[in-house]
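Reviewer comment 2.1 asked that we show a complete input and output for one of the modelled complexes. We chose the adenosine-5'-triphosphate case, as it is the one discussed in the main text.
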Amino acid sequence: MLRISKLTKRYGGDQPVLKELDLGVSERSMVAIIGASGAGKSTLLRCINRLVEPTSGSIQLNDTELTGLRGRELRHARRRIGMIFQGFNLVDRLTVMENVLSGRLGYVNFWRALTRRFPQDDIDHAFYLMERAGIAHYANKRADELSGGERQRVGVVRALMQRPEILLADEPTASLDPKTSEQVMALLRNLSDELSLPVLINIHNVHEACEFTERIVGMRHGRIVFDGKPGELTRAAQDEIYAGAPADEREAAKEHAEGAVRAAAQ
Ligand SMILES: Nc1ncnc2c1ncn2[C@@H]1O[C@H](COP(=O)(O)OP(=O)(O)OP(=O)(O)O)[C@@H](O)[C@H]1O
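Response of the prediction step:
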């Protein structure tokens, strides 16, 4: 369970980017965060894994207060939070297996990590997850020989190797073509169900958000202005989320959402 209360983030002396934001995410749920560019979606995810320092408020992950953690405690807390990035963040010259096992680096001791001697249990788990993600046959391929969709599958498996308590995905499909993007979303959906893992996805594609998640959180200017099921994302709700956004962004989001809301309501 993730419980965020009154989270505020201010960069420098500017207006806060997150304004006393409250959000709870329970186990086994996949939640999409949507909103116009600059609404604060990435900042929210980055506050959770403390890549960005919250200004005030509370972030609790299963009884651990994440704000205020330092040093070793912070490193340990970060192991419990899996992160998936838009740009995959793989090490190109390493193989798929090596990239995947790097998800365990925070757990194995220094010498094992240096000599890449991971416990058999880690190797078995890596193969299990790679099979699930359809990339086991690429285990010995270099990461830079893979397509974008395959690379993101490696990113997903690497994050899961941490055996995280929550998965945060920051625009995980933004660099992928529509078909591949849907496949990666379906993989996240299935793994979330199978592993009872809460997944928080920052996503621009409202259609995919509605199709693959059961809860949509709409942000505007650092606040949550919508929190509901895909079928409840009415035109009025979309107007509120995207009010003031550039016209092209607003229209693109609405275009995506119309069909998705109809489909979700059926
Ligand atoms: N490191 C930083 N220093 C100063 N301002 C920042 C920093 N990171 C983000 N911001 C500002 O905070 C606001 C919210 O940015 P954020 O990236 O969280 O929004 P977003 O909703 O994820 O946008 P996008 O969809 O374009 O990625 C923006 O105005 C941005 O310029």
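The chain has a mean pLDDT of 90. We note this here for comparison with the apo prediction described in Section 3.2.
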